[in-house]
Amino acid sequence: MKRRITWVLVFPVSLLFFSVSSRFEVLDGQKSLTDTAKKAVKFGFGRTATPKEIASWDIDVRPDGKGLPAGKGDVKTGRIIYTTKCAVCHGANGTETPGVKLPGAALVGDTLAKARPKTIGNYWPYATTLFDYIRRSMPYNLPGSLTDNEVYGLTAYLLNANKIIKADVVLDAQNLPQIVMPARKLFIMDDRKGAPEIK
Amino acid sequence: MKANRKNNRKVVTGKISRRTLISGLIAAAVLPVNALFAGDLEKNERLLHDLDDPTKSPGPGPSPLGKRSGFEKPVRKPSDISSRTPLQDLHSTITPADLHFERHHAGIPTIDPSKHELLIHGLVNRPMKFSLADLKRFPAITRTCFIECAGNFRTGKEEMTPQDVLGLTSQSEWTGVMLSTLFNEVGIDAKAQWFLAEGSDAAVMTRTIPLSKAWDDAMIVYAQNGEAIRPEQGYPIRLLLPGFEGNMNIKWLRRIELSEAPYMTREETSKYTYPVKDKIRMFSFEMDARSIITFPSYPQKVSKGYVEIRGIAWSGRGKVEKVEVSTDNGKTWQLANLQEPVLSKAHTYFRYLWNWNGNETEILSRVTDETGYLQPTLQQLVEARGPNIGGYHMNPITAWKVKADGSVWFKPEKYTDK
């Protein structure tokens, strides 16, 4: 699974960037971009980062699940956390209420491709992104304050509210990357390369 | 009395220098006495005249920090989430640092430069941390280029300035170290294809960038227009990806992780993506070629006769090849002068001398970049992408309506869904 996802992600775009020039090849008209080093130099500036230093900052999560921490969370506990910490900005149910402008974006909506507003249900191509984003930057007034279990719970609640997973699912590092988001099939990589054509 | 009134008016409008204030106060104190007792009206008049003559009294001396003339009031236009550059107030392509547009997602962090470090890890031979002092020891490069927010498109009413329409683009002279120099220092694993860049703001902003950009022209910059980067622009360091959409130029940069696959962060999936027919296009990095006339524009006025039309043009894919201006509603197009030097991925200033006959018309500009791409009309973009265009990566031709009274108005474009 992991391998397949990686391949699917990397292949189309790696074609675009296949002609990676070597470090020392200077493109015409870009000569001013070369610095004073005439060849590859190891300058010896900087220091080796310790595993502990890396671990304290390395919070990213990839679609193949790399980076997901231990822990788990379910829809029920996620709903409680949502009500306590998220509803003040995103509304009681995370849905858009006509005529009401909330501080936070609508999170819950129809999964149909053309449905609006853009929500997790119709515009988020990867479930892992939810975990990554909530953990790093939510809640807005206290980013980074949620435990990993709380983030799993919130992710479960929001996926269930968007009718993507059932109410009894307990999310963890194994099953979160397996979830296929309704919007995944809509997303395409930009393949424009600079040409007269308007696309 | 006259002196007092004049002095008061100047205070109210705020257009007063210290020198004028001081001499004005002296005059205000002295004049009534003169008028009353000496009765020397002629001398009185002369003194009044002196208030407006800068050759008649010495000005202030040197100071530690310069400031703009009190007569000049260029300001950014802030909303809750961004502030826009007053393009109509600029006469060339460098944006003064305090007028550079802002867009941040959880406010501006306060970072102590002596404690700030950049971590590079992931698919590298040796994970490393670099202090700001370390980064400044590496060979440096200076480059002038634009940064434009990918969501830089507004329309809808005639009362819009260039700042309102596309004020989320600015240009600076950036100095820092080539990212390739740092990548050479850590050693990049052959499996790496992408890198994640992460900021140390409260959004802990992240984007995935193709590794090829690092070998091409990406930089880690610490200076903007010769001095330390402004806090709004990423102090003490930011990623600079010439030509790529603004959001990817991660500010307050603290971490880079090399990877074989993209991370699909929130900002590259549910944001900064846009409908193209029945699909959603993602990973649009380069900003497409665009131009706008900044003079004359709303709310300026012009007079019959010679009007030098001025503006900026740019492309995220290289140099501006040519800019054409139309003064007849887009029927015919004339070549504009490009101000040298024309730099790659940089705002380029253009000028075209127009002899206006006083008749109502529309003036427009369009740019062609070195890939042969010609800036499209809004209608062409809609035909290529469908009617649900959204606001990202929109670069349509901008038209200004010049009315017979010399007033200039933005033309909100209409389009039809064919």
From TrEMBL, chain A:
This is Cytochrome c. InterPro entries: Cyt_c-like_dom (IPR009056), Cyt_c-like_dom_sf (IPR036909), Cytochrome_c-type_DH (IPR051459). GO terms for molecular function: electron transfer activity; heme binding; metal ion binding. It comes from Pedobacter rhizosphaerae. Keywords: Heme, Iron, Metal-binding. The lineage of its organism: Bacteria, Pseudomonadati, Bacteroidota, Sphingobacteriia, Sphingobacteriales. The keyword Phosphoprotein does not apply. PANTHER family: ALCOHOL DEHYDROGENASE CYTOCHROME C SUBUNIT, BLL4482 PROTEIN-RELATED. It holds the Pfam family Cytochrom_C.
TrEMBL record, chain B:
The keyword Calcium does not apply. Residues 105-263 form the Oxidoreductase molybdopterin-binding domain. GO terms for biological process: sulfur compound metabolic process. The keyword Membrane does not apply. InterPro entries: Ig_E-set, MoCF_OxRdtse_dimer, Mopterin_OxRdtase_euk, OxRdtase_Mopterin-bd_dom, OxRdtase_Mopterin-bd_sf, Sulfite_DH_SoxC. Residues 285-397 form the Moybdenum cofactor oxidoreductase dimerisation domain. Residues 49-88 are annotated as: Disordered. GO terms for molecular function: heme binding; molybdenum ion binding; molybdopterin cofactor binding; sulfite oxidase activity. Its cofactor is Mo-molybdopterin. Keywords: Metal-binding, Molybdenum, Oxidoreductase. PANTHER family: SULFITE OXIDASE, MITOCHONDRIAL, SULFITE REDUCTASE. This is Sulfane dehydrogenase subunit SoxC.
